[in-house]
Write a sequence for this structure.
């Protein structure tokens, strides 16, 4: 069973390396020194595999690395479980997999909720005309407007919603989706982990 602990430790180390590489890619002008080149050679093949999943690129934000990190976390959990329980249960593996996928989706929802709340606060403080005053807000509005109207359209009943109303509606829908999804996933993984 110590082999599973060792493998889990290797997966955890690789997760840390991938996370460090992702953070370093966000820093402009970091250049490609020896450490960054090493991390790129080690982590890019794995992280680039997830670029195929285009649905994880939302409003210009790339969530594919989050999926890669969550799968590494799930692999580490499975390996740790195998070392602790001395037995492998298929239901536990399925529960961990579903839990990991939900963690990625929930993270995306929370990120979108935070973006929309920040934008709503700006609308309340400066009014809806603030988006034309700032190039940053104009770009943010361009990126998230599809999301806002996608989630608020079913509740518009054929009317065109004001931007503020569409923002509030989208926030409420996303929060309810996150809460409901969390409850369903918790119940489902609880049932599956017993098999």
């Amino acid at each position: 069973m110590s082999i599973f602990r060792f493998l889990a430790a290797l997966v955890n180390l690789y997760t840390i390396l991938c996370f460090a590489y992702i953070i370093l890619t966000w820093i402009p002008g970091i250049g490609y020194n020896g450490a960054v080149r090493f991390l790129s050679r080690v982590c890019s093949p794995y992280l680039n595999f997830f670029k195929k999943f285009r649905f994880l690129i939302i409003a210009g934000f790339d969530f594919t690395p989050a999926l890669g990190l969550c799968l590494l976390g799930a692999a580490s959990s499975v390996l740790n479980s195998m070392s602790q329980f001395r037995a492998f249960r298929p239901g536990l593996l399925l529960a961990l997999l579903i839990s990991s996928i939900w963690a990625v989706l929930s993270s995306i929802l929370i990120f979108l909720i935070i973006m929309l709340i920040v934008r709503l606060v700006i609308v309340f403080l400066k009014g809806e005309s603030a988006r034309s005053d700032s190039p940053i807000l104009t770009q943010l509005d361009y990126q998230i407007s599809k999301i806002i109207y996608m989630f608020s359209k079913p509740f518009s009943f054929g009317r065109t919603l004001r931007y503020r109303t569409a923002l509030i509606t989208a926030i409420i829908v996303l929060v309810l989706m996150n809460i409901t999804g969390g409850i369903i996933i918790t119940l489902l993984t609880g049932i599956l982990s017993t098999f």
